[in-house]
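Fold this: Threonine synthase
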Amino acid sequence: MSNVTQLRCINCSRTYQPRPGFYTCPVCGSTDGILDVEYDYDYINKYISKESLAGNREPSMWRYRPFLPVAQEGPLPPLRVGWSPLYRADRLGAELGLKELYIKDDGINPTASLKDRPSAVAVARAMAEGAGVVACSSTGNAASSLAGAAASVGLKAVIFVPGRAPQGKVAQLLIFGATVISVQGSYEDAFRLSAAAIEEHGWYNRNAAINPYLVEGKKTACLEVAEQLHWEVPDWVVLSVGDGCTMAGAWKAWVDLKKAGWIEKLPRMLGVQAEGCCPITRAFREGTRVRPMEENTLADSIAVGVPRNPEKALRAVRDSRGTMINVSDEEILAAMRVLGRTSGVFGEPAGVAGTAGLIKAVREGIIKPEERVVVLVTGNGLKDVANAIKAAGEPIRVAPSLEALHKALGDLKLPNYGWGYVPEPRLAERR
């Protein structure tokens, strides 16, 4: 990895050279000794530029390969991960009173979540290191993304999930041929068991809070945002927070771009947690270390009572002059409805927690009407259909007759245009 200069401990600032199986600072330990990947930006600028990207036809996250901690030549996982759409959300923006709002929909990735990005990096590195088995603990999305990426290159995946993991996510794991261990306990229980098994068997460790390279995969979402906005930096980037790794990755993208000289300013970061599991928000507000919390929210993918990478997330929010906010499960379900109704984007509860936080932040005056905002939707709603039905309600049930249909539609008070209705011309057609 000629583009990577070293790994730096975020706690003691000691530096290390990358080597297989080396994930955390041995002096500070696995809890505090989280490492950060540092790059040679002169090297990066030699092999990639804004101008070269304009002509790059690679429709995936690998278009940013010089910014990533993988071999700069050689095989990569074949699944197309990344280059997800950035929609201008004018209808939702109008409802919220925002002049310029964008939605980054990462639910279109191969296994339907942003977690495909770090898993692609994990599998690329596992192949380069000659690993035969990759493993992780997960509330669901990281697990399915790793299983899919591993299956695409013939690696064996061993996945540890808490017993509450939604069946849609477990089904993905099994279809991809992973060995699935359903731990009858909390996410923390699953994490501890996976860590012990990984150490005992020498499997490649995909746990994002431990493996410093996986945050780098997550940052590609915001590298894409920057390019899709023609390198005009938004005022705010909004996203849900569980373990803290996605926030850390999103912020790292903007920091890397600024250090490389590609942008001149940095956005503010808004991190959103569920009220029923918000240890990072609590630490941010109190200025203390993170303390464990119960995992009491329907947003399973961010229900992390003992986050393993909170410090990078906290630093990202503080360094950006951003803030943290909590939302209730009811606010999350409401956000699922409004996002679908106004934008046609179907997100799972954890995936739209950022949208719920955005709505609340606008209402509280944290985000101003004239500011440019990007909100990340990190997972597709089909992963958790039970909660989608809880959010949207049941379908209308009618007998198979027009009379019954007329009554049902009449009760809804839908507009009845009739056969002679001609819609008003669109603005472009008037011109």
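The domain at 86-112+215-390 is CATH 3.40.50.1100 (Rossmann fold). The CA atoms of residues 107 and 162 lie 22 Å apart.
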